[in-house]
Amino acid sequence: MNRPLVGPEDVAAAAELVAGFARRTPVLDSRAVSALAGGPVLLKCENLQRSGSYKVRGAYVRLARLSEAERSRGVVAASAGNHAQGVALAAGRLGVRATVFMPDGAALPKVAATQEYGAHVELGGASVDEALRRAQEHADRTGAVLVHPFDHPDVVAGQGTVGLEILEQVPDVRTIVVPVGGGGLAAGIVAALGEDHPDVEVVGVQAAAAAAYPPSLEAGRPLTVPLRSTMADGIAVGRPGDVPFGLLHGRHVPVRTVSEEELSRALLLLLERSKTVVEPAGAAGVASVLAGHPVATPAVVVLSGGNIDPLLLLRVVRHGLASAGRYLQLRVRLDDRPGHLAAMVGEIATAGGNITHVGHVRTGVDLAIDEVEVGVQVETRGPLHSAEVVQALLAAGYRVSDA
């Protein structure tokens, strides 16, 4: 039987390298997620890692193992943000010059943090895959060493130190749920488990809009899939890495998908119930549990990153409230007469709804000359309360439709 490209001994060696650089992140109980799973679920908080994600682990191992000649040429990387920050931070610690290519849509806080860690940032392209092509061109042109975000044994071994810590912190773990983009983190955890832990299942989770692994695993080889827009930019990768794919395919790791609504609801759940800030990609594992995907417990869900743009957080929280039935958007038609708007607002208030925004439309091909359409945004206590608010308006004779 051929030895895997990365195994437990490689992860153990990587752990010695990152000791003193990467943090040993905590594992926290979550009653809310445990209730959803029907058994104990713990959260591995890589959102509290240096630079805000697990990526510093693999980046540091890769850079620390470069020769002096390679370090002198500098390194180049491509990332939507977390790998960029990990490479920049590791390069700064090791005294290596770093250039990072990031997509045009990369979150400004991630760009700023990468620059503050000392890397030179080049923006361009619509995706991480395009940024990676530009980074490879830069490496070919300048001789800089490409630090791939997931497709290298040293990177995979470094990410695997997350799995090593989980085994030490939760010895009776039965399932480890991991967000998956290119697959480096999940593959590293598989490598850490090796053959000594056949009873521990690793489960990957991808955003449905960027899910290259399910068809690739079915085909038995990495496939490239078109990417759709997703809030989980940290795991929006169009093709699995060859090294990670080999490890995940070899262990028969299932990879599930979650919707944008499930991602936003998971992020909201973590904020409200666990007092934990994560980015959408980092919430993918919790989204899977929230979606009802079964896990054997005790389970550990990896919160892979916490680098979220505050503006995106605002939108995602609002989206999560709407998905959870706590943020109601309605269009209400009224007679355009004094007092009718106030009466409608009063009905919502009496029903316990909190209006956050009101907008008027007085002209439209489907509006009568004496009608006005009012768009209202209402905070509610949940789906049942939302239905009560709508029913109160209908009972009062208002014509109501979804916004």
TrEMBL record:
Superkingdom of the source species: Bacteria
Top-level enzyme category: lyase
Record's catalysed reaction(s): L-threonine = 2-oxobutanoate + NH4(+)
Claim: Lyase is one of the keywords in the record: yes
InterPro entries: ACT-like_dom_sf, ACT_dom, ACT_ThrD-II-like, Ser/Thr_Dehydratase, Thr_deHydtase_catblc, TrpB-like_PALP, TrpB-like_PALP_sf
Domain ACT: 329-403
PROSITE patterns tied to this protein: ACT (PS51671)
Keywords for the protein's UniProt record, in alphabetical order: Lyase, Pyridoxal phosphate
Keyword set includes Lyase: yes
Enzyme Commission code: 4.3.1.19
Family from the record: Belongs to the serine/threonine dehydratase family.
Protein name: threonine ammonia-lyase
Organism: Actinotalea ferrariae CF5-4
Source taxonomy: Bacteria, Bacillati, Actinomycetota, Actinomycetes, Micrococcales
